[in-house]
Amino acid sequence: xxxxxxxxxxxxxxxxxxxxxxxxxxxxxxxxxxxxxxxxxxxxxxxxxxxxxxxxxxxxxxxxxxxxxxxxxxxxxxxxxxxxxxxxxxxxxxxxxxxxxxxxxxxxxxxxxxxxxxxxxxxxxxxxxxxxxxxxxxxxxxxxxxxxxxxxxxxxxxxxxxxxxxxxxxxxxxxxxxxxxxxxxxxxxxxxxxxxxxxxxxxxxxxxxxxxxxxx
Length: 216
Description:
Layout: H1 16-51, H2 55-85, H3 88-99, H4 106-115, H5 123-160, H6 168-198, H7 204-209
Helix pairs in contact: 1-2, 1-6, 2-5, 4-5, 4-6, 5-6
């Protein structure tokens, strides 16, 4: 089980059935996140290849990144579907509300995490995430992540098909754009992970703010 991106690594107060529910939803997320971060590695190596004027190898990196993102999407979509079919989202939203004293503690959790350098978000980004939870809970928040990654996957696939022969102007534009978009999606996903791990424990946010570990 993932220690950095799952929704609830430890449920001492939960039933066996609830623990199983979390594990069935978390498993694909952990695998998907592994593929996603490999895509990021390939995109950074793509920049290294371009600096060395090796466009052919850079094109291979783009294809590898595109394949990794497609693999990540398979896992994320599986998790999303399983969560919907098994009624996971109401259970998890309930835990968030319980920890927050009636409402999911999104702003508080992200604020403390940002102060502790766990995530890089400005106030507008925090507010956007908070509103998404208020409007549709974890289902809406994670659904947005999948939607953004799907669009990114399509862009990567489109360029990968012509990357070997692409002109320098396209590389100069898209190489930076791919990294920028990847980082934006990664940071958003990181914010969801922080909420899902720290936001479900009422005292975890305070602990993060004081540099304490939450046992994950």
